Amino acid sequence: MTTNIVFLSLLAIATLLFASSATACDRCVHKSKVAFFSKAQALQSGACGYGTLATGFNNGHLAAAAPSIYKDGAGCGACFQIRCKNEGICSKEGSVVLVSDLNDDNNRTDFVLSSRAFMGMAKKGMGQDLLKLGIADVEYKRVPCEYKSKNLAIRVEESSQKPNYLAIKILYQGGQTEIVAVDVAQVGSSNWNFMSRNYGAVWDTSRVPNGALQFRFVVTSGFDGKWYWAESVMPADWKESVIYDSGLQITDIAQEGCSQCDDGSWKQ
């Protein structure tokens, strides 16, 4: 029975990695259009589940992304550099945004940005001029997320009910990777229980170990997955709404399965 469970777990991980690769090539340059939310609150109720924490990420440069980028929640927390193409208004640097929501009701754009991120694409002093356009032609590519002063963190969700149910939200995932599996175990134990992606950046399980908790993550790295181990993350008396530091810094750059990637249009 144990062998079958391990085999099924590895098969599930392999399937997730393949699915991630199948929708890869984020780092290639893509052309599209972007719009913006007039109110930041629209992104606080986003599909990634970051809530009011969202506006504190990436200086408020946030984005709702198309399903192919959101990837059923695996794309939550990914960073993209987006540059608009109106040379009279737009800067060469553009704006680096963090995916915090799903944009599933607008076929005209790959992203809908926070107004701060939208104005961030403009030359100095021309943010309002860019806002007046409403929609901008852009090119974009994925870039690493950097959290130099923060480790990967785990927030215990309010829906958690000790000792029978645990829901966590994963914050500050650095690098250019995706978390495709999460396991939890009692500190010092090798009896790992898998967690399921509830939605977005939220994972849960009804098989909650007793005592202090440790976690392990499968993160896309290279063309395969890489295990990250976070020891003694949550105390035995863990509480809802508290953020716990994993002690991990993820900086990997996943190698995507792109057959071709023409970056010729991306000139500094």
Describe this entry's structure for a reader.
This protein is of the alpha+beta class. Helix content is 15%, strand content 34%. It has helices spanning 2-22, 41-44, 67-70, 115-119, 127-133, and strands at 30-37, 62-65, 79-84, 95-102, 111-114, 136-143, 153-156, 166-171, 179-186, 193-199, 202-205, 213-221, 224-234, 243-245. Strand 12 (213-221) and strand 13 (224-234) form a beta hairpin. This is Expansin-like A2.
- The number of helical elements comes to 5
Strand order, sheet with most strands: 13-12-9-10-11-8-7-14
Structural class: alpha+beta
Low-pLDDT segments: 1-24
What oligomeric arrangement do these chains adopt?
A: single chain
- What's the story with the biggest beta sheet? 8 strands, antiparallel
SSE order, one letter for each helix or strand: HEHEHEEEHHEEEEEEEEE
Per the principal axes of the C-alpha atoms, what is the gross shape? elongated
DSSP summary, beta strand count:
14
What's the rounded overall pLDDT mean? 86
Helical content band: 10-25%
Give me the secondary-structure topology.
Blueprint: H1 2-22, E1 30-37, H2 41-44, E2 62-65, H3 67-70, E3 79-84, E4 95-102, E5 111-114, H4 115-119, H5 127-133, E6 136-143, E7 153-156, E8 166-171, E9 179-186, E10 193-199, E11 202-205, E12 213-221, E13 224-234, E14 243-245
